[in-house]
Amino acid sequence: TMAQLVQAEKMSELGKLTAGIAHEINNPIGYIRSNLESMTDYTASFRDIFAQLSQLEQEVGELRVPLQALQKQYDIQFLLEDCEDIVQTNIKGIDRISGIVSDLYAFSRRADGTFKAMDIHPVLQRCINLTRSRFADHHTVELDVSAVDTRLRGDTSQLEQVLMNLMLNAAHAMPGVGTLTIAVKGDALWLEISLTDTGTGMPKATLNRIFTPFFTTKPTGQGTGLGLSISQGIIRAHGGTIVATSDVGKGTTFTLRLPRQQDGSQ
Ligand code: ADP
Ligand code: MG
């Protein structure tokens, strides 16, 4: 239908754009990172030289005064520390950008927006298998599709990306023993998928921001904060909604509501 076509076009434009951005950014990141790594090597050598100079200074007493003057003049130690800080900060920044780029890239590869007749049950099963290694032995993952019709029109790989992200977030939110319960319900028009974890939960201030691009509470390098904003984009492109409720110390529930058809036709 027309609405689906427009949507598919929007998504594929977005895909091309993000693929382009990812490629343009990835290249310079590669060489900036290796430059910074060699700079780390240089500062290490300088440190070595500095240590040897200090050694020499102690061994050759007469040189003490001029060497101290030299050291003061250039304040080598301070410069080195400054330099190392800058290098380390830059490397961290680059690793963060790399993470964002690979998220965008994963998204663009999948953003073909082709809505086809599909079944969410095997997709859920596949996501559970794919994320198995990220759940620990003390975790239980339960899937309840209790005889509901699990078919809808959608983009399999995009919905898989959404479910993967929700499952990985849940695994991350359960540092100790925990259970993720995935339930699918539905009626003639809508399919409802809920993912409930018994994890840390979120305070209201966090909950209010989870769909904001780049919002993350994870340490640098561990999260880009793009997962839920991309997920929300995908669910909206399907004509659906994604909402979260959470209780600190008890856990979190994400509920996806997806129309069986994007515009009620067919
Ligand atoms: P990322 O996983 O890279 O941090 P997301 O967009 O997937 O980015 O998630 C954003 C933030 O939402 C997370 O950093 C975390 O604070 C919070 N969050 C998401 N899912 C859960 C969950 N199941 N339990 C607790 N907090 C969550
Ligand atoms: Mg995530």
From TrEMBL:
Residues 20-262 form the Histidine kinase domain. It comes from the Bacteria. The lineage of its organism: Bacteria, Pseudomonadati, Pseudomonadota, Gammaproteobacteria, Alteromonadales. The chain holds residues 174 to 439 of 439 of the full protein. It catalyses: ATP + protein L-histidine = ADP + protein N-phospho-L-histidine. Coiled coil: none annotated. GO terms for molecular function: phosphorelay sensor kinase activity. Keywords: Kinase, Phosphoprotein, Transferase. Its EC number is 2.7.13.3. Signal peptide: none annotated. This is histidine kinase. The keyword Zinc does not apply. The keyword Repeat does not apply.
